[in-house]
Amino acid sequence: DFGRSSELAFVVEPSDDIAVQEQPLILYCQVEGIQPITITWRKNGVMILDSENAFMLANGSLYVSRFQRVRGDGSSDEGEYDCMAQNHYGLVVSRKAKIQAATMSDFHIHPQNAVVEEGGVARFQCQIHGLPEPVILWHKNSMPVNTDNERYTLLPKGVLQITGLRAEDSGIFHCVATNIANVKFSREARLTVSGSHSTVYKDPMILVGPENLTLTVHQTAVLECIATGNPRPIVSWSRLDGRPIGVEGIQVLGTGNLMISDLTVQHSGIYVCAANKPGTRVRRTAQGSLVVQAPAEFVQHPQSISRPVGTTAIFTCVAQGEPPPQITWLRNGQILETSDHIKLKNNNSTLSIYGINQADEAIYQCLAENSAGSTQASARLTVLWADGLPSPPQGVRAETVSATTIQVSWEKPLQNTKEIIGYVLHIRKAADPIEMEYQEAVSKSTFQQLVTDLEPSTSYSFYIKAYTSRGASKASEVTVVSTLGEVPAMPSLFIKVINSTTVQATWEPSIKLGQHKGFKLYYRKVHLSQYTGPVLLASNVTAYNITHLDASVVYEVKLLAYNQHGDGNSTVRFVSLRETVERTVLNPPCDCMKDEQNNKTSTTGIIIGIHIGVTCIIFCILFLMFGYRGRLLMCKNVQEQLSTPQIPRSQRSAMGLVLNGTTRRDRDDRDLNGKQLDMNELERLFPASPSQEQQEKGITSAHSPSAPHDETQISTLPLDEFSIIEEQPDPLPKNPRGSTPAAPAPNHGPANEG
Prior knowledge:
By secondary structure, this protein is mostly beta strands. It is built from 6 helices and 59 strands.
């Protein structure tokens, strides 16, 4: 009973057929259901009236006495026929049956003469069009070809293959095409087998590869592949997508033709024929596509249903096929037109009828059709209506309370109110389709309902139904009202300090803001009452730079969104630029060029300092070797860097050379035993150092970014406790600068410490 209405349904439907010229044709149609049932026929959508040539039999079938492809008046009996059945429940239409006349054209490909060497392959072909598809047989020397011979292969499309040719295969060949319309003979072709079997090597070659085929399920496909070569190549088949061909229904005809019986949609694909030289990888390939179509068939049929007035009826009809079928709905045999309360969804697979009434009661049909065929299924909608139901509720009113709330009120029906068990309020946006409607149930003693969670500035429609245990009343009158407008919500605001005079205000767009025209930005110094602004910004702007600010004060920044209903609440942020200014003073910007120059200068100073230190050590050793005896010369714990400032020699002489806190003039006064230290040599090796204060200033300037780029600075390696000790019988006089005099050395030869 799937796909049938019990009140009216088809048992037998007309099917596609090929009719023979001047022969009778019968199209079958059988219906079951509640009598009386009326059956009529249509051809190409036009009603067929009984005539001498075509009339309806008692069982409802259509009889055509003499089928004619073309009549004297130019009309034709070819076309699409369908059967219609009707009773007082409704009307149904059968599937369309395509009727064609049997025909046969002339041969458009005839076999050709061929001369082939012994052991080779011969192929003859003839082609002819006809309905139904002609059966082609081959004759040799006017006798049917012996199909029991394994070397002879006959393919359905009119191909004859002969492999392993022998001298006795020579002869005259022709083909015979036969169908219900006619029998035709092709021209003759001569096959000559020459010479003996050649032993010369020949690469494999495919003479004829597979053609592209489009067939229907359950038919048989033959993919041709004939190859030559010496030695004879091995023919194999595969699918281009790598899927296995399988074994069920698969057969090899002759030496390499692939036949697939009882086709399914899964057999569709591209097939590759390969001719391989035995024992090697030498191969040649050819390919062809196979498309298998499947007529439409139902996966889910529509079911007959009964629904009370005012409710929703839904029919579902799911079909499959290859190519995918198109679905059409009929109502009592007529194409169903959609409207506000009749909707088709899911590629017409679902029919929804909202707020049904008595006029919607009918038989609904689902027609599924593709290029391979069509099918139909039907179902009936029964609309339930009980006597004594309440009349529609009265005086429906809707009042706007806020941007998201509307209050709906009504009065009880005028008639049949005793059995009312409650009311149902139907709510829908006025711009939405009817299927977007939703309901809220209300008790029978309540005559108003507060509808919340609505959208601002939106129109809504409302109507009421009264319900009893036996069904619902008709709908009340529809009332439409709009919610109030709403100002936008608060935006999120972030402040970023760019520099000492500029900050950037940024915010994020959000659907929570609602509909808005743009933003207003204000800012002020916190100790002032007057704002600067508003700065009007478009709704798509998300950042704004505030410039020319005073770094010594704190600023207040305020942002709000606005629309036609007014300004929304603002978001406020405070920002201070003082920390940015302080960071700039403490961390001045880097002068990369100057730092690079200073780095180069420091590296040069280190190298020069190393040379000076090494020279100092060498000369000190020389002094010991020559037995110099004099004053104490000590270089100990040198921590500061030695440099060679560009000071005139006269100035250096005035400053004097300082060794361990003793000037050269003091040492001259204390010269003992006539032994004089060659101060000129020492002065050359150890240039006079500036005073400690000057050294500190020099060091500071060397590391300061303001030091001149062309100033040369020389650093030395520190010498750890290097000293020269000389025998000193008399205590040294007190250092004129107040430093502690050096301890007397023991009276012995020179010694090296450190």
